[in-house]
Design a protein that fits this description.
The protein contains 14 helices and 13 strands. The protein is α/β, with parallel strands linked by helices. It folds into two domains: 204 residues, Rossmann fold (3-Layer(aba) Sandwich), CATH 3.40.50; 176 residues, Rossmann fold. The chain has a seven-stranded mixed beta sheet. A six-stranded parallel beta sheet has the order 8-7-6-9-10-11. α5 packs across α8. The two termini are 35 Å apart. The chain binds NADPH dihydro-nicotinamide-adenine-dinucleotide phosphate.
């Protein structure tokens, strides 16, 4: 079989010769008891770069020893790109949300042999799910592999926005010491109202991680959490996103991107937020309206916006979120720490081993199966597509 793997570029200076930390902590299981990935073995050292082209998700030896062909590229967007050429006879395509190969309807149609699209990570919105359903292409992701990595990033971003870390750090880099400039937008989070849109694996973990800061915690989700969890964290449930945003100083967005959530944070909703609130969005860029966010930061309706997710990805060099005031954006990195890469590379191998051996893939990993939303997909996604406009990613020019 032919496996096409679309990964991000290697470091500019080549693959690292060494890494800062000598070994990763050993985790036994995820907090709800779900098992970490269980491939028969792995051919990489956890803690090394695996998500870039030369890292190959640690798959080459395994695939070639079984007689399969592995093609790895980062060239994924412009017309005539290598990924499009290789896709036409690929059986499996693997892509990461950090460097998404947008599997649009046209691309899925061009891929006559395609049986499965694997997301090395979580979030399969870069696949036109409707086209996958219609063309019976299975879609799977490595559920939980980086949920907690993202929750850590959320806490970092909430603190750095509210305390105004980025401004203070740049004052130091510029050789300055004006304390008044450094603190004129700096607050404590203690006592603030912090709410999540969606309390799934990431949203709930972010609430748990924020609890020790003595904040008031809120959530909105389509399903309520168990009462024991609500009591443990002293949570306030909201039955609509409007109700949540009206009372929160900080809103973190943690739902998947699908037609129901695309453009959810538009100008109208942002104007219903508390004046001067902060948004941290590590879910997907398209859940927030690009222009409305920039406008609200300029007017002061929002005090800050941070996240690691953009639309499209890579973000065009002139994407307004790169230059809007009071932002704390990073490239899409929260779910691809070296720690997370080890888990999702192992998860991809587990999925491929099941696929080749015709064994069932864990239900938790399924988004689309045999032309139906299945497993996690049936729980968290709706039919349709959220890939519209992704061709703009070709505008990005490497720096
Ligand atoms: P989960 O599936 O555990 O949680 C998703 C939650 O979103 C579920 O509780 C679901 O609710 C809820 N939800 C779905 N649709 C809506 C809606 N319309 N309104 C409110 N809630 C909704 O996934 P994770 O927490 O692990 O991941 C969430 C998302 O975060 C991913 O889909 C991905 O987009 C993003 N992500 C980002 C990463 C990064 O690197 N920045 C890495 C990993 C994930 P219910 O089940 O109750 O219907």
């Amino acid at each position: 079989m032919k496996i096409l793997c679309v990964l991000y570029d290697d470091p500019k200076g080549g693959m690292p010769k060494s890494y800062p930390v000598s070994s990763l902590p050993k985790l036994d299981k995820y907090p709800d008891g779900m098992k970490l990935p269980t491939p028969s073995t792995i051919d990489f050292k956890p803690g090394e770069l695996l998500g870039c082209v030369s890292g190959e998700l640690g798959l080459r030896k395994f695939l070639e020893s079984k007689g399969h062909k592995l093609v790895v590229t980062s060239d994924k967007d412009a017309k005539g790109c290598k990924a499009d050429k290789e896709l036409t006879d690929a059986d499996v395509v693997i892509s990461q949300p950090f460097w998404p190969y947008y599997l649009t309807k046209e691309r899925i149609k061009s891929a006559k042999n395609l049986k499965m699209a694997i997301t090395a990570g979580i979030g399969s919105d870069h696949v036109d799910l409707q086209a996958a359903l219609d063309n019976k292409v299975d879609v799977v992701e490595v559920t939980y592999c980086n949920s907690r990595s993202v929750a850590e990033h959320i806490v970092m971003m909430i603190l750095s926005l509210v305390r105004d870390y980025h401004n203070q750090h740049s004052i130091v880099n510029e050789g300055g010491w004006n304390i008044a400039d450094a603190v004129r937008r700096s607050y404590d989070v203690e006592g603030m109202h912090v709410g999540t849109v969606a309390a799934g694996r990431i949203g709930l973990d972010a609430l748990r991680k924020m609890k020790p800061f003595d904040v008031h915690l809120h959530y909105f989700d389509r399903h309520k959490l168990p009462e024991t969890v609500e009591k443990e964290l002293n949570l306030t449930f909201h039955d609509s996103v409007e109700s949540l945003v009206k009372v929160c100083d900080v809103v973190t967005i943690n739902c998947p991107l699908h037609p129901e959530t695309e453009n959810l944070f538009d100008e109208k909703l942002i104007n219903k937020m508390k004046k001067g609130a902060y948004i941290v969005n590590t879910a997907r860029g398209k859940i927030c309206n690009r222009e409305a966010i920039a406008k609200a930061l300029k007017s002061g309706q929002l005090s800050g916006y941070a996240g690691d997710v953009w639309f499209p990805q890579p973000a065009p060099n002139d994407h307004i979120w790169r230059t809007m005031p009071n932002h704390g954006m990073t490239p899409h990195t929260s779910g691809t720490s070296l720690s997370a890469q080890a888990r999702y590379a192992a998860g991809v191998r587990e999925i491929l081993e099941c696929f080749f051996e015709k064994k069932p893939i864990r239900d938790q990993y399924l988004i689309v199966k045999d032309g139906q939303l299945a497993g996690m997909g049936a729980h968290s996604y709706s039919k349709g597509s959220a890939t519209g406009g992704s061709e703009e990613a070709a505008k990005y020019k490497k720096k």
